[in-house]
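Dear H.,

Thanks for agreeing to be a second pair of eyes. The structure we're designing against is below in C-alpha cell form, covering all 192 positions.
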C-alpha cells in the first residue's frame, strides 16, 4: 500500500512521536508499505510521522545515493524506537531535501558522527556508530520523530527567504509526482 506523504504545515510533523512495542498491529505490513511509499516518491528515508503516524519508526535505503556521490552507500535499515545517544565528529555541511517539503533543497550543518540505539524489524536491539551519509540520513529521519524538519536548521535569513515557498507547500501549491496530504488544502475543503 502506498501512503500519501504529509506536507509541511501539518501538525503531525511537529509532534514528538511515541515508542511502539511488539504488539503494534501489522508492523511488518506497515514497514513494507513504508518502503513502497518511499521508493514510489524517490526518497532515501521515510519516517512514520510523514505518513501521519506519530510513532518512532523510520526506514532508510541509501542505495539511490550511489548515483550522486562517488562511493557507493550500501545502507538499508529499519529503525524502531531509535535513540541517538551521542553526536560527535566535525560539523559537516550537506544538501538535504525532504519528501514533506518538496522542491526545497538546502545546505544543512550537522555533526558527522552519531551513536544510535534501536530495534530492527525482528526486534533485535542494536547499538551502532555511523558516520558520513548514513549518519546524515539517520539524523534527518530521527528529527522527524522529534517534530523537527530540516528547514528548522537553517539560518533566520534563509528561513525568511523560504517562507513563501513553505506556505505554498502547506497550501498544496507545489508540483509533486506523488500523493500528498496538504494541511491547508484540507481545511478549505471541509468548509464547503
Ligand atoms: Ni524528511
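And this is the sequence the design step returned. I haven't edited it by hand at all.
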Amino acid at each position: 500500500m502506498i501512503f500519501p506523504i504529509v506536507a509541511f504545515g501539518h501538525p503531525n510533523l511537529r509532534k514528538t512521536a511515541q515508542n511502539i512495542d511488539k504488539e503494534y498491529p501489522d508492523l511488518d505490513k506497515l514497514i513494507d508499505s513504508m518502503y513502497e511509499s518511499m521508493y514510489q516518491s524517490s526518497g532515501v528515508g521515510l519516517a512514520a510521522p510523514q505518513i501521519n503516524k506519530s510513532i518512532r519508526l523510520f526506514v532508510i535505503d541509501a542505495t539511490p545515493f550511489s548515483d550522486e556521490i562517488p562511493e557507493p552507500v550500501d545502507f538499508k535499515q529499519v529503525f524502531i524506537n531509535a535513540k541517538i545517544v551521542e553526536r560527535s565528529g566535525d560539523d559537516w555541511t550537506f544538501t538535504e531535501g525532504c519528501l514533506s517539503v518538496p522542491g526545497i533543497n538546502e545546505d544543512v550543518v550537522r555533526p558527522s558522527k552519531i551513536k544510535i540505539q534501536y530495534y530492527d524489524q525482528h526486534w533485535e536491539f542494536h547499538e551502532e556508530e555511523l558516520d558520513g551519509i548514513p549518519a546524515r540520513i539517520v539524523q534527518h529521519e530521527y528529527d522527524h520523530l522529534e517534530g523537527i524538519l530540516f528547514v528548522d536548521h537553517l539560518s533566520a535569513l534563509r528561513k525568511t527567504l523560504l517562507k513563501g515557498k513553505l506556505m505554498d507547500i502547506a497550501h498544496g501549491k507545489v508540483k509533486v509526482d506523488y500523493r500528498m496530504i496538504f494541511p491547508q488544502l484540507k481545511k478549505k475543503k471541509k468548509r464547503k
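Two observations from my side: The radius of gyration is 16 Å. The beta strands are 5-6, 45-47, 57-61, 76-96, 106-119, 125-131, 180-181.

Warmly,
E.
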